[in-house]
Amino acid sequence: MLLTISTTHRPATDLGFLLHKNPDRHHVAELGFGTAHVFYPEASDERCSAAVLVDVDPIGLVRDRNPAGRFALAHYVNDRPYVASSYLSVALGRLFGTAMSGRSKERQHVADQAIPLEAWMPVAPCRGGEDLARRLFEPLGYLTRAQALPLDPQFPEWGDSRYLSLRISARLRLRDLLRHLFVLLPVLDDDKHYWVGADEVAKLLRRGGEWLAGHPDRDLIARRYLRYDQRLTSGALARLFEDEAGDPDRRDQASDAGEESVERKVSGGHSLHEQRLAAVLAVITGSRACRVLDLGCGSGKLIAELLKERGLERIVGLDVSHRALETAARRLHLDGMAPRQRERVELLHGSLTYRDGRLRGFDAAAVVEVIEHLDPPRPRRTRSTTRCCRACPTGASGTPTTASSGPAPSSPSGRRGSPPTTATVSSCPGSDPRTTGSAAPHSWRCSGDDRYQDP
User: Fold this and answer.
1) Are residues 279 and 179 in the same domain?
2) What's the pLDDT score for residue 210?
3) 175 and 277 assigned to the same domain
4) How much of the chain, in percent, has pLDDT values that exceed 70?
5) What is the CATH number of the domain that holds 295?
6) 15 or 85: which carries more pLDDT confidence?
7) Highest mean pLDDT range out of 64-73, 277-286, 405-414, 445-454?
8) Which of these, 161, 160, 4, 159, lies nearest to 84 by C-alpha position?
9) Quick one: 189 and 322 in the same domain?
């Protein structure tokens, strides 16, 4: 199995100091399952690449009590010597433990700064395909290029395998790249070669504590990393948010509750949030859409109102917070909902800041009070949201709340799914959300191809 880590930081040979591996030498480490090698295919001031090659001992695999597979010959016939898996994670921890901690005796100032880095895995097993690879790495700021490998190039009709050629690149600290790889390689593979116990929880929190809490797929990562052990997974997530003040979901809920209390006093009984929902609902129903997305659906208030509209065939809510989706499910009484009504609504866990094929094929999308919860770089990656912001009335200030609708390709003009309409419901001081929503329907149009796409 092979992994390369490259940089174009000048001088690029600083990578050797950060990894604590001299580019002029071939480094070898003996592991319980084989031998790990570190060498440098290129090392110049302009570009430097470190390669990690793990030579897995087949006899060691036979001794493994947890074979990669469930069939009789899994000890002897498997992909473990060739793919980036938990074996590679263990090798990274052994080879680059000091680098993963962020220490560098000669180049500490470089270890503490973000530099351009690229990691390439020629063969990475991924149960979930290219979409899952992007879901795991893109929220962490990586440009992700994943190409599915064919089962057999000589027989293209057999289709693609579950293996990817995976290349990720970003400007970040080396310690962060190594920690991301250490945790996410077994998650991609959805397998581990060793017994998972309580010590794995500590390892997950040590390597993922700084970034895992804010990842939109943190629950999936914890489940896969801990091999679907519910007790360990629940304990890990609880410890991740042990400090209630550090839980981003709870912070958002507390902030929203405080804002709504103030708004009710200012607006005389109906909060601005309720008025915005009413304005957005009017725009969506007026657009004659039949398939609607609520991006950042939160506790499901807008979905509850949309379900009352019989003309809407499908309503999907998306939110980055698993806790918010659970609250929405309880609010909507999904467990006791009539079968025909239940078919109309679906709740999805995800983020609108990166591509998601599940969001295609809808006529309208609502983005209500979401932008203020995104990190500064994220709004630039939500093109449709940004365009809605530009439609905010002249002189307004603050964060806009948006409802946008796009065309259904097969629908004739004048019927449901007709040409796109967009309304901007501003939460700006001094503006009335009830009138703003009706004033902006023709302010701009959105092309059908780039909805819900990154730039």
Assistant:
1) no
2) 81
3) no
4) 70
5) 3.40.50.150
6) 15
7) 277-286
8) 4
9) no
Residues 168 and 43 in one domain: yes
pLDDT mean over 99-103: 91
Q: Do both 279 and 190 map to the same domain?
A: no
* 264 domain residue, yes or no: no
- Whether 202 is covered by a domain: the verdict is no
6, 18 Cβ separation under 8 angstroms: no
CB 443 within 8 A of CB 422: yes
CA 214 – CA 440 distance, rounded (Å): 34
CATH of the domain at 92: 3.30.1610.20
State mean pLDDT over 3-18: 94
Q: Choose one of 162, 194, 226: the last residue of a domain.
A: 194
Q: What is the CA radius of gyration of the chain?
A: 25
- Tell me if 346 is assigned to some domain: yes
Question: pLDDT per residue over 25-76, tens digit each?
Answer: 999 999 888 899 999 999 999 999 999 999 988 766 666 555 444 555 666 6
Query: Do 143 and 12 fall into the same domain?
Result: yes
pTM for the structure as a whole: 0.58
Map tokens 């009413």 to a residue: 278
**In the chain, how many domains are there?**
2
Residue 45 belongs to domain spanning = 2-194
Q: Bridge-partner residues for 121, per DSSP?
A: 166
CB-count exposure of residue 109 (10 Å: 0-12, 13-18, 19+): exposed
In a domain, 339, yes or no: yes
**Residue 403 burial (CB count, 10 A):** 31
Mean pLDDT taken over the chain: 76
Same domain, 177 and 52: yes
